[in-house]
Write a structure and sequence with these properties.
This protein has one domain (3-139): Ribosomal Protein S5, domain 2. Helix content is 41%, strand content 23%. The chain has four helices and six strands; from the N terminus they run ββαβββααβα. α2 (68-88) packs across α4.
Length: 140
């Protein structure tokens, strides 16, 4: 599947959120900063060079987490929480080309949804500040 064939969803602020599909896209984010929460790990880079503007997210939940039903529920909860958190963080993500990988944990099923969104918002904010700091350090 070509990278142009990525599945799109629309955030509440109207920004497009595409899905990472290829293994290479996931591996490219391994060196990016991470934010660890109880229910997930958010890893990503904001303002990557040489890429088209937009938000792209990859979701992964390992088989150790549970059966297919549980993994899909975790993935759906994380997808919607990210969409809402990205909408809340439009100031830090607006016009930027941002790439994220979300690794889901089993506790994402039990954690209250509002807390999941709050942690996701906090994670996006932290990654944005780390990306801004890294770009300032490399420029001067």
């Amino acid at each position: 599947m070509a990278s142009g064939d990525a599945k799109l969803s629309i955030g509440m602020a109207g920004q497009m959120i595409a899905t990472l599909k290829n293994r290479g896209e996931f591996l490219a984010l391994r060196k990016c900063p991470r934010y660890k929460a109880a229910a997930f790990i958010l890893q990503g880079c904001i303002g990557m060079d040489g890429e088209a503007a937009g938000i792209r997210v990859g979701y992964t939940v390992t088989k150790k987490t549970g059966n297919a039903v549980e993994r899909n529920r975790i993935r759906r909860r994380l997808r919607e929480a990210f969409r809402q958190a990205a909408t809340a963080q439009t100031a830090s993500l607006n016009g930027a080309n941002a790439r994220f990988v979300l690794v889901g944990h089993r506790s994402a099923l039990a954690e209250p949804y509002a807390q999941l969104v709050a942690e996701m918002t906090k994670g996006i904010d932290r990654l944005a500040s780390k990306s801004n700091k890294a770009s300032r350090d490399s420029n001067g």
